[in-house]
Amino acid sequence: MTLRGAVERLDTATTTNVAEKLSCEYDCAYYYLKKLEEDGTIRSEKIGNTILWHAE
Questions:
Q1: Does residue 12 contact residue 51 with C-beta atoms inside 8 Å?
Q2: What SUPFAM superfamilies has UniProt attached to this entry (predicted)?
Q3: Residue 56 pLDDT
Q4: Is the pLDDT assigned to residue 53 strictly greater than 90?
Q5: Cα 38 to Cα 20, 23, 35, distances in angstroms
Q6: How far apart are CA 33 and CA 14, in angstroms?
Q7: N- to C-terminal Cα distance for the chain?
Q8: Number of folded domains that form the chain
Q9: What does the alpha-carbon distance between residue 2 and residue 46 come to, in Å, rounded to a whole number?
């Protein structure tokens, strides 16, 4: 499964949830999610201390 695929499939795609889904470290997931956001593939929404990721 890809990062984008995890974001699409999870009801609540937080960085932690994506990392758990892909069995990787939080920092690794966050780094690549930010890269996908820079490319315009996904977008983020900050709610309190939580970042939600949405597929575009």
A1: no
A2: Winged helix' DNA-binding domain (SSF46785)
A3: 87
A4: yes
A5: 22, 23, 5
A6: 10
A7: 17
A8: 1
A9: 22
pLDDT of 31 strictly over 90: yes
> What DSSP assignment string belongs to 8-44?
HH-SS-BHHHHHHHHT--HHHHHHHHHHHHHHTSEEE
- The predicted pLDDT at position 42 comes to 97
Interior CA angle at 23 toward 7 and 47, to 5°? 40
- Look up tokens 């699409």; give the residue: 8
Residue 37: give the domain boundaries: 3-55
Token reading at 15: 């960085």
The strand pairing partners of 54, in sequence order, are: 43
CATH at 45: 1.10.10.10
